[in-house]
Write a structure and sequence with these properties.
This protein has 9 helices and 10 strands. The protein is an alpha+beta fold and 276 residues long. α3 crosses α4 and α3 packs across α8.
Length: 276
Amino acid sequence: MKSSSGKVEIFPLPKVRRHTYHFLQYAEQFRSVYIDTEIDMTAVLRRKNECQLESRRIGYTSYLIHAIARVLRRYPEANVSVNGGWFPKMAQYSDITAKFTIDKIRDGRRIVLSGMIPDADQRSLSEMQMVIDYYKDRQLEDIPELTSIRKLQSLPILLGRIIYRLVMGSLGKRNELTGAFVVTSLGHRPIQSFFPIISNTLCFGVGTIEEKPVVFAGEVRIRPIMKLSLAFDHRAIDGALAADILAEVKQALESDSETFVKQVEEKEVSYVGAST
């Protein structure tokens, strides 16, 4: 086939893209609403520097999951999932499982996959980072937890779509498959806002961290600011509850001593850009 600009090659959807295709087809049923806020990451920066002095590397994703999971523990009515249709049903879960996204290369293509952290509200920052590193540092073929994704990629499109919907349609298993919440980011690029597509009730989109002028105690100061968005399924929860959750996550991440704030302002502590 030719066009005015030259040759055009048309080919079947690559296998490595099929799991994303099935996800997007399935996600059409969710009714997403988006809210966002700006977070002063000074306190998180302090904790990261303290960990580095102890020869421990804790990424931003771990801090986010740590804060979100503990906030969600206060709002069990948000740890739910909805199945639509003629007879809609809702499931409420007692466990808080966190889901996070990771980049992988397969067949020469960059793809996004996800890892899970069960009982996220009970884990320390170091324990969360160990799980994240487990997924990040291994090849796709060396992660048994992602075997089902590899199988899904190998199936014909129609069969894969049917199986995906059957598996995800189980409310009893959905929390294990999609998590009570998801944290996803494009932190490796200077993207300020990220509004993700959801496959469950709560999904947090993480923007990059940038130094910005903010008003603090009546004065304009430079702070490391990060935008955090929340996409939520309006069938499951209302905006007021979503706003409460996002506001408390902001408060949890920003809470810290003024001593370190002063050190940052006086440039005694360096700021390093965001990474997973």
